[in-house]
Amino acid sequence: MANVTTAQLFEEPFDADEYIERLAWRTPGGGSKGGAEAFDPKKLLEEFVNHIEELKLLDERIQRKVEKLEQQCHREAKEFAHKVQDLQRSNQIKEAADIIQKLHLIAQELPFDRFSDVKAKIASKYHDLERQLIQEFTAAQRRGEIGRMREVAAVLLHFKGYAHCVDVYIKQCQEGAYMRNDVFEDIAVLCQRVNKQVGEVFCSPETVMAKLIQSIFENKIQAHVKERLDETRNSDVEQYLKNLYDLYTRTTALAAKLSDFNLGSDKHTFLSKLIKNIFSCYLESYIDMERQYLQSRSGMILQRFYDSKNHHKRSVGTGSIQELKERIRQRTNLPLGPSIDTHGETFLSQEVVVNLLQETRHAFERCNKLSDPADLPKNAFSIFLLLVEYLCVDHIDYALEIGLSAIPSADAKNANLYFLDVVQQANTIFHLFDKQFNDHLMPLISSSPKLTECLHKKKEVIEQMEVKLDTGIDRTLNCMIGQMKHILVTEQKKTDFKPEDENNVMIQYTTACSKVCAYVSKQVERVRRSMDGKNVDTVLTELGVRFHRLIHEHLQQFSYSSMGGMLAICDVAEYRRSAKDFRVPLVLQLFDTLHALCNLLVVAPDNLKQVCSGEQLTNLDRNLLHAFVQLRVDYRSARLARHFS
């Protein structure tokens, strides 16, 4: 209430005497002319004292408000002055830049001898202003003032220092950008960020972006690649090749991402050139180091395998005497020196093959990425030749040679025929080798002249090994027949087919027949396990034909009584049952015919001509039929000879 009263007393126009008079009049007992209350000087004094205190408080409040308003006014005036100053300075920069730029151009036309001082002063001012502009741009970039950066860059565009302004921008962009362990990811993030900003600052953002990327490649990536490769180049070739492949792959992948940005009209050539400048010194020697590593690694894999077998790899003879011996051995059963006992070891290893193929697959992958397109087919072929050398020659062919040497002679007793195990493993390896050829080599050479050369080399290698496989299989079959022959010689008695007591024969077939059939059954199953596809039928056909020939010749060594002839028919029926396991129509047909021939041993003399003209015998040579009839013990009788003549 006192504040309101005081405020009313301060009504304009203000007069101090009037103000005191009004205050006294409003105070009870303070009026000078009397009234309801008598004049009381004490009350008036007390009112004056209180009012003075109120005026002091009011003065303090007003003073504080005035000070606050003054500060605000001063601050706003200062900010306004700064803005005006900035605008003025900005304008003076543009004006000064325009003036000094024009002067600089004019000064170029002035003769040096007469205006050297003027030209020097203009040049000095030009460079000072240029330096100030670049400093201003740098400061604005650090403050993140895109608008200011754009203004200064636009002014600098007509100065020689514009390129330096771009360099400063590129340098500051990279400050603190490489914080991760993955430099390629850092670069991708940096370029993505700068690409969004550069268009707001520069009038030709594609040029600035290209220059940034060039700086990154020539400095950051180049240094990173050099550090990673130089530390392993001479100490660890395997790691060096892995690092080279990884770095080149990641660099090209980064370049593919960066190609999405606007870098000018020929950005792909630009990026390719940057990559080439970094890696050319490494790629020039790549294939030599690849082949060197592959040779060393493949040799180590093979040696480690043979060491694990305690096997000292013997040299395979290639001299004329050795070749002559081998040809004689292949075409005869002559034992030219003792066969090697391998104790069932094939000297082929699935693990070795997988390791060699894996190393070669990695080499093909690196070759595809790191080779110049023009050299790719040639380089891929050189890697393929190493695979042929170490896998096909040093491992498979060596195992075939050892396997051939281990095959016993055909007349050996209780021979262990491990060569079929070699065949089985070799077939598996061939499939893996062929798969890698098709999956990893063919895509690299399919459209080049090297394709014919590769196919020819592959065909040559496989044919050479197939010759040895065929030779080994042929000699193995000879051994099988030799084993059967040994069983027949030792188990078959002459009395089997000419028993002393014709009426007391209790067996269904002879012991020799039983043992031969059991042996044949095992060998047929073994062939099926060792071969695949048409090879099974081919080998079983050959084995079946030789089996038939053996039995046919064996039966012709005996004389047959009537009961003995019946027993021979039973034996042949059992052989025929074994022949069914071959699942080869020709073999079964041969034993069907043999079974029909054996009927000549028991048929009544009067029926001989009828039997010989039967369906199964009518086309056979008459001398063959006669030979079987001669095996009968009763052949000498005039009656039998007369009926057959």
Automatic annotation (TrEMBL):
At the top level, the lineage of the source is: Eukaryota
One annotated GO biological process: Golgi to plasma membrane transport
User: Could you confirm whether the keyword Transport appears in this record?
Assistant: yes
Q: Where is each Exocyst complex component Sec10-like alpha-helical bundle domain found?
A: 95-644
Exocyst complex component Sec10 N-terminal domain location: 41-92
Q: Could you list the residue ranges forming a coiled coil in this record? A: 52-79
Supply one GO CC term from the record: exocyst
* Keywords noted in UniProt: Coiled coil, Exocytosis, Transport
Does the keyword Transport feature in the UniProt annotation? yes
- State the Pfam families in the record: Sec10_HB, Sec10_N
What family does the entry list? Belongs to the SEC10 family.
Kindly provide the name given to this protein in its UniProt entry.
Exocyst complex component 5
Organism equals Cyprinus carpio (Common carp)
